[in-house]
Amino acid sequence: MKKLFICAFLVYAASLQAQPMGKGNLPPVFPKEVAEKTQFDTRTRAYISPVRVMWTQNGDLITGSENLLLQGNGQATTANTPKTVFVSKEGKRPSILLDFGREIHGGLQFVTCIRASTKPVKVRVRLGESVGEAMCEITKENGATNDHAMRDYTIELPWLGVCEVGNSGFRFVRIDMLEDDVELPIKEIRASLLYRDIPYLGSFRSNDPRVDSIWATGAYTLHLNLQEYLVEAPKRDRLVWLGDLHPEVRTALAVFGDNEALSRGLDFARDETPLPGWMNGMCSYSLWWVLIHRDYYMYRGDLNYLKQQQQYLSDLMKILMSKVDAEGREHLDGGGRFLDWPTSEDTLAVNAGLHALMLMTFEAGAEMLNALGDKELAAQCTATADRMKKVTPDYKTSKQSAALIALAGIVPAETANKEVLEVGGAHGFSTFYGYYMLKAQALAGDYTDAIQNMKDYWGGMLDLGATTFWEDFDINWKKNAARIDELIPAGKVDVHRTYGDYCYKGYRHSLAHGWASGPTAWLSEYVLGVKIVEPGCKAVKIEPNLGGLEWVEGTVPTPYGVIKVRHEKQADGKIKSKIEVPKGVKVVK
């Protein structure tokens, strides 16, 4: 799998190129040929001051560190303003660790003051998603790297000026002086947050603050990945991975509604993957491209956009049909057979999961082809799906494969839940496929256990200080674990350094990963109960499922405006609902 990851990354890294994005105008002094090639950013930059100084080394050589917590303005000045002064002398060099309060995507801004020497001063900057990462060295044992985005580097700060550096995901920053006998007065050190300034149209509240925090944290995790493209993490890999995009797109639609980054990422993957190639070098990721487009079409109802996918979709479906034998068994080859990392060495789980994914892909393809008027190819897809339903692979080795088998309708969801999904609670959940485990438990009607599993699993990351959801997590990691937002106490486990596997061992592990945002989409669709029935959200069903919750309320965006709901559980167990839908949306039974 490591080889697969490296190969897929090299293909994508080589293919990245500038494309038209945001709208804008260069000043008229630029020639036309320059303006035609210019790309404008669609994002906003905001500057955030630290919320606390967590640690210093040789702290007696730092004066006024509390001034770093003041609001800044990014402007160097000759005036005598509050400042922090770092001094290296007598062979001692000071260091400081800052906390910006939550994970962000972006870099740092340094504003320096007047000093005796105008020579630039060298400092070392270390960014960390955890305190441990910000304090570590890049070693094989630590797993820390500068892959995809620089997080450990040396810079020179100017005399009386402003320096902006960095483009990664982080919360904590360690800064070390690197030279002897120098003085560095600094007016400001601020984080530079780069993000899409878009409203949170979706919302969720309930009587359980832990559930509310999970919805909000998933929404924010996705927001950090909603850059010029929808990528899967701000630290790494910062790439358009198609499998990751399925829960990400579902969350984006539940929180923000449609956004240009969604279609841009889908089109990018299509254009960068000529058939018969597999997206990202993995057959399952081409399947996810089809499933995403079906969901995207149901939300947008944009037939013109779907027509732009028709040739690629049709050719892909024909290739996929050639990979199914007469008995209905799949034979996907020529690309990595992959579900998620925890199942990557479980052949039975991968085989069962791919079979179910492929079946659902044929059903989704048939839906879209019917909408496009290609009844003949749609019928072929349906016939292939029907043939695959007669095959029941061994799905009992993992919750990932059991969830997909249930969602594909190969076995009753109640059966898969009783045999596999409910066993051991949140043990065996994964950040990516946990979304599908929740969906399968909902299909089985087991909302109480699903909500509890969500609280235990995603809530377990919150218990360890997470402000975004991680690339991977196991609730067993909580045993004797230190929080990621504190210096590691003696005798406690540094979760970030100790755990992780495959390509994400130790501090290389991403602690803000878009594929982990699934509970946000799940809560909106299954607990608030808003499900799309007709393309474009023209018709929806609203079927709340509160499990053990007493009340829930929230909003769900549609192309026509937001749907507002509030559901309260009555003394007799029945649900009383208040529903407001925008004009153009009808509620059906």
From TrEMBL:
UniProt keyword Signal, yes or no: yes
One Pfam family hit: Bac_rhamnosid_C
Domain Alpha-L-rhamnosidase six-hairpin glycosidase: 201-524
SUPFAM superfamilies from the UniProt entry: Six-hairpin glycosidases (SSF48208)
Keywords per UniProt: Signal
Presence of keyword Nucleotide-binding: no
Residues of the signal peptide: 1-18
Domain Alpha-L-rhamnosidase C-terminal: 529-586
InterPro entries per UniProt: 6-hairpin_glycosidase_sf (IPR008928), 6hp_glycosidase-like_sf (IPR012341), Bac_rhamnosid6H (IPR035396), Bac_rhamnosid_C (IPR035398)
Protein name: Alpha-L-rhamnosidase
Native species: Alistipes hominis
